[in-house]
Amino acid sequence: GSADGSIRLWNTSTGETQQTLLGHFDVVTSVTFSTTGATLASGSLDGSVQLWDVDTGEQIHILIGHEDAVYGIAFSPTEGTLASASRDGTIRLWYTAFGIIKQTLIGHEGPVYDVAFNPNGNTIASSSGDGTVLLWDAVTGQPQQVLTGHTHIVLSVAFSTSGGTIASGSVDGTVRLWDAVFGGQRQALTGYTNYILGVTFSNDGSIVASSGSDNAINLWDAATGQHRQMLIGHTDWVWSVVYSPDGSTIASGSDDGTIRLWNSTTGEHQRTYEGHTNWVWSVAYSPNGSTIASGSEDGTIRLWDAIYGGHIQTFTGHSDSVLSVAFSTDGNTIASGSADGTIRLWDVWTGEHKQTFFGHEDFVRSVAFSPNGDILASGSDDGTVRLWDIVFGVELEIFRGHTDYVWDVAFSSNGDILTSGSSDNTVRVWDTISGQHLQTFTGHKSAVLDVAFSPNGDKIASSSSDGTVLLWNFTPPSTMYATVSLSPSSIQSPAIGGQLTFSLNIADAGNVFGYQATVRYDESALSYIGSSNADFLPTGAYSVIPVTTDNTVTVAATSLSGQNFGAGTLANLTFEVVSLKNTSITVSKVRLTDNLGRVSYARVVAAKITRPLLQQGDINGDGFVNIQDLTLVASNFGEEGDNLADVNGDEVVDIVDLTLVAAAMANSMGAAPTISAHDLEHGLTREQVQQWLHQAQQLSLTDPTFQSGIFVLQQLLAALTPQETILLPNYPNPFNPETWIPYQLAKPSDVSLSIHSANGHLIRTLVLGHQPAGLYQSRDSAVYWDGKNKAGEPVASGVYFYTLTADKFTASRKMLILK
Q1: What are the residues whose beta carbons fall under 8 Å from the beta carbon of 311, sequence distance 6 or more?
Q2: Over the stretch 69-99, which tens digit does the pLDDT of each residue have?
Q3: Could you report the per-residue pLDDT of 283-338, keeping only the tens digit for each?
Q4: In this structure, is residue 617 part of a structural domain?
Q5: CATH no. for residue 286?
Q6: Is there a smaller number of Cβ atoms within 10 Å at the N or the C end of the chain?
Q7: Are residues 301 and 209 in the same domain?
Q8: Global pTM exceeds 0.70
Q9: Pairing mode, strands 227-232 and 238-243
Q10: Which domain holds residue 495?
């Protein structure tokens, strides 16, 4: 992330920019990848956290809610929650799928500069300008411990791999190591008195890397606190430091506008990436190590090739600086947090903005994906840490507790714990499942600017503007959570109109007397049909009527005769497919109650729906290529861009696409096309097909496939051209008060229809005028009679005769009115 507001992805081998993400309107303070690497989160001085699709560069969500700059962001290990740290003194937790606030954590007395999740995601550490590190319950959003010791702003926090130690870096010039469970200070790593802006653990947890206002990166022994090495090359403050996934390389982002790569063993400078036009606030590696994302004061996110070097793509969209970037765990999405107060998600491969999360009320300083990629965490200057559903961009949780900017957020390796660093000088740890604040670490004397978990999650590192890095011992809580998931967890979508039923399952449950859960789905892909209680609760359980919104269903039930334990199915939900697309169904707000009414929480697992591989020409996805697909293409004529009807992929729907569908009909049907009543009901006419055929022939294309399509259109035209003129039975019959009278013409004719009573008295004459040859059988084209005479009066019940006259053709039939 850069002071120019951009985020860049870099190739670590060539040093070239791969991609630049633009969207923040101010300095990008923090960037972080989700666990899968598919999503990048960025935090910015514009107060926003933004989520980005790493593949496309597309902004996925803008997370608005912080009241000031966002300094730090971190994904929970599951990726379902993003924590953000802000100058407003809060940490916010966001649902990464939905881009909405999950929880706001309030507790710091100053800006929150950084947040980080512990490896299991249930604790969050935060660093603050109040000089403390706070530990929070990531589920409940409640503060658990305050770690004090720093003498200045704590700018950064990080958990060790085990989650037992927290490292914090401070403006007081120290890095402190803390016991993440009991909150005691283990080590104070000192060597200089400059601001320590960034901190991270090596992949094996043995080294703590810190960066600061001395323009250098310092490496420390995590066990002894001894200074190991100094990496010199940047010409201005170094805000962000991160290890590559294989641990061989360190990437750093600086106020000098560059990203540098270093050999983590020798300290040798390997490559410099240039392209940002202002400070680089945040850098992040994709999970496979092939791409680097950077967020900048220039308001952009840039992607760089980490293997061969070079700029891949620039993402623009933030209206202010991009303060933080992060990759999703699958490497396909980038999240960015910005000074515009939003979080955006970008597609890494296309650079397309996928989603914007709104909720923070100030700068988004930090974004981080949970390890499973479902949640994005963000830290903001509004003092909150938020967790977001990255699929739908809705806020899942707000962790409140910090009293100042949240500079950084980081997930534990399992995503159950999130930590945040704040300007209130504290690191806080949060339980991402229950939303509870677990612990607050105090010790820094100034803002906590960065936080990180050790790989095993037993330590949290925090860096501060007090010039220290502190390591905190952390023992994850022993809470046993049930797991609520959707089954099947992954399924290929049936054809449009088909139905999908998902079971809402529970496992590892203890003493469950009742439940409530919210299921969120994509209403552009699915339509909710209904739900029912299942067999987990004892027989006779009372089911609450589901509460539905545009794209959510909340189901609940309570037992009337006892509780249950173990595993089973809570409910079944059925949806109808309305369009074919890759999508997800997520579960949130799970509340389990026991027989005393006590509430417990559960881990949640989403389900994925994959779009089937359609045969060419099957536009509506019903498994067949037929006339309905032709009419669907015709209805999209002139449409540009991504469209299922664009069969040849030239980004415009035209007669070529329709003719190719006609050719596919020959392969699918294996015979001349047949006309059904359903086809006629959709307005298919001989004139329409004749026009298609004329347009196709005018192109004079000799391609065999195209010529096959012309042949099918000729056959279709013949099928729509009757061999003889016929008057057909009216429908409905008997009727009251209206009916339709179908017919077909073998040649163009002047057509009229007369209606007589049983005694031969003329009731009504309907003059249809000159009609072309064709089938007139659907309600749109058949003769319509409203059951009234020429004076507009309804006629009586009885037998009537209708006569069709078409030039020299005349035919009569009888019909019956019953009232």
Answers
A1: 8, 9, 10, 11, 16, 17, 18, 19, 20, 273, 275, 302, 303, 304, 305
A2: 999 999 999 889 999 999 999 999 988 988 8
A3: 999 989 999 999 889 988 889 999 888 898 898 988 899 989 999 888 889 999 99
A4: no
A5: 2.130.10.10
A6: C
A7: yes
A8: no
A9: unpaired
A10: 482-610
